[in-house]
Specification:
Rossmann fold, 9-stranded mixed sheet, 27 strands, Jelly Rolls, Alpha-Beta Plaits, 6-stranded antiparallel sheet, 26% strand, single chain, alpha+beta
Length: 585
């Protein structure tokens, strides 16, 4: 075990190829063909210095190392498996993580978010002009599943595109405005896609982009989005490799691309991220979260992130272990569950024995507290368990459980995790199951806790985190990920926006209705673009971005919710988006 390598990468390196193949998490980042790992590291020095160090340390393998330097001394490496530990041991490397998979989590929405009055050409008497805010002069970036670039809502009145650049990571290609316009002039779909073949298969990114910035041309303005005259940067997340979901490394590349493009063009930018995952301490300390924090300080931007849809999914539980009293956590595993993993996070100071009880009553434990991997068999399920150490950025310890079927499925029934106190100082613990709809219905904690169900990276401290509410009944959405962050207890979500039954763009030129925090997030992204237009483009406040913009959103948030008297709170943060009240008088 290497302390400069995160726990799950240590475990993946220790696991057998068969164990990794059965797991949801362990094989992510490994390329079987080249027997190499994609990893994220924080490092000291410049790219040239890092290359020189690698060339000196690994002269025979240097040609097999791929180095992709991002902003602020983050780098994505592709390195042979045998070099993972030696690379981490280099003094220039601060910390190393493996990528994780990401899961994609209008009219009434605009009205509820106090946007309509800003879009029409009417000033409010006695205040600074806040009319005709359309997003003009501000970039909106949608990092998602792509876009139907031929949809009328993303085209100008002359038929040309509003998209400045479209990076399709799955095709490893970047298409500029001129290329997209050339494609749009083609008489047939086949000829169009021969020039610009990027598609949005799921429709998720197209829907999100429509809320944030669609101009409503296909509906005569009925389903017009928020920043409807902004120019767009689109990143379709993914990888050219087959059968893989987007990873955190693709997200880091996308953020770097969007921020640098905005700086190159000299334009402010609002960046929309409507996805996440559940692996991590949920305290804002992983490299993807710290990278987002660093990028939030890079140029004039706002990074807006959805809180996820795990609020009522029973994928999280927590509690406090009390001296002389065993805590029992019950986990229901449904039939036909092909694989499963569980994270337990506790304070390293607390000394707790852990035992595991199979649905048939077989008990294993207390488990050995030796750092590294342990294996044992329970029924027809192999257990792979890893005891980790605190990371350089966090005092918390992770114990990771991987349930691997001997045959096809993990044993179903009620599993029990026993926490037996030995010496307790703090006592708090948290457990998470995988998010993103990867589990069957019925696999869940029997006593779930809805708080601290934010997905990562919405826990990044400098991202603007958005939950969802039902604007029709002015009630929090049960599915919306709830705060606060673990350990730091930072207020998240920052605010909420409409996320239930939202109508927006669909591939093919029409519209469809969707629900989720993915739909709430672009209301705030578009709202941020309007605010930056008012402040930066119209020169009312040239510093209206980043943390200042978040502060304005919080101040203007509407807290008129029945049954809520304490603000902030884990369901609604500081309240509901109200853009007009967020601009100063």
């Amino acid at each position: 075990m290497n302390e400069k390598i995160e726990n799950i990468l240590n475990l993946a390196m220790d696991a057998t190829p068969e164990e990794r193949a059965k797991s949801l998490n362990l094989n992510v980042g490994f390329d079987r063909e080249s027997a190499s790992w994609e990893v994220v590291v924080k490092f000291f020095g410049t790219k040239e210095q890092l290359q020189a160090v690698f060339e000196q340390a690994f002269p025979t393998e240097f040609s097999n190392i791929k180095i992709e330097v991002l902003s602020n001394q983050y780098v994505i490496l592709q390195i042979p498996e045998k070099l993972v530990t030696p690379v981490a041991d280099l003094p220039e490397i601060e910390y190393m993580e493996k990528p994780k998979q990401l899961f994609f989590a209008v009219n009434n929405g605009k009205s509820a978010s106090c946007i309509n009055t800003l879009q029409i050409g009417k000033s409010v008497a006695g205040v600074t002009d806040r009319s005709n805010l359309t997003g003009r002069g501000v970039l909106v970036a949608i990092v998602d599943s792509g876009i139907d670039y031929s949809h009328p809502d993303f085209r100008n009145t002359d038929g040309t595109t509003r998209i400045i650049r479209l990076w399709d990571q799955t095709l490893d290609a970047i298409y500029d405005r001129e290329t997209i316009n050339r494609a749009l002039k083609q008489p047939t779909e086949a000829e169009r896609y021969a020039i610009c073949p990027s598609r949005d298969i799921s429709g998720h990114g197209t829907h999100v982009a429509g809320i944030a910035a669609g101009n409503g041309r296909a509906s005569n303005g009925l389903y017009r989005g928020v920043a409807y005259e902004s120019e767009l940067i689109i990143v379709k997340l993914g990888t050219p490799r087959e059968n893989t979901l987007p990873r955190t490394t693709e997200l880091m590349r996308a953020l770097d691309f969007c921020a640098n493009t905005a700086r190159e063009l000299g334009m402010p930018i609002a960046i929309n991220l409507s996805f996440g995952n559940n692996y991590g301490s949920h305290s804002g300390t992983s490299l993807i979260e710290t990278f987002i924090n660093d990028m939030a300080d890079f140029g004039r931007n706002a990074i807006v992130i959805g809180s996820g849809n795990d609020g009522a999914a029973a994928l999280h539980t927590s509690g406090r272990v009390v001296q002389n009293q065993t805590s029992v956590i019950e986990l229901a595993v449904s039939e036909f569950e092909p694989t499963l993993n569980l994270q337990l996070w506790k304070n390293y100071v607390d000394d707790i024995d852990i035992a595991l009880v199979h649905p048939n009553g077989t008990r294993v434990g207390p488990l050995q507290k030796t750092l590294g991997a342990q294996r044992f068999r329970m029924g027809d399920t192999d257990m792979l368990i890893f005891y980790g150490e605190p990371a350089p950025y966090s005092p918390y310890q992770e114990i990771y459980f991987e349930f691997l079927p001997i045959g096809t499925y993990v044993d179903s029934g009620i599993w029990r995790i026993e926490l037996i106190p030995k010496e307790i100082v703090f006592g708090e613990y948290n457990m998470w199951l995988p998010s993103g709809g990867t589990l069957n219905i019925g696999t869940a904690f029997l006593n779930p806790v809805e708080e601290t169900t934010l997905t990562i990276p919405s826990t990044a401290s400098k991202g603007i985190t958005v939950g969802a509410y039902d604007a029709r009944f002015r009630q929090p959405a049960a599915f919306s990920g709830r705060g606060f962050t673990r350990e730091t207890n930072q207020v998240k979500p920052d605010l909420v926006a409409p996320g239930v039954e939202i109508t927006s763009c669909a591939p093919g030129g029409g519209y469809e209705t969707r629900t989720g925090t993915s739909m709430a997030t672009p209301f705030v992204t578009g709202g941020a673009a309007l605010m930056m237009q008012w402040g930066i483009i119209n020169k009312n406040d040239i510093y209206l971005y980043g943390e200042k913009l978040r502060a304005y959103l919080i101040r203007g948030a509407n807290r008129n919710f029945a049954g809520f008297s304490q603000w902030p709170n884990p369901q609604l943060g500081w309240g509901a988006l109200c853009v007009s009240d967020s601009l100063p008088i």
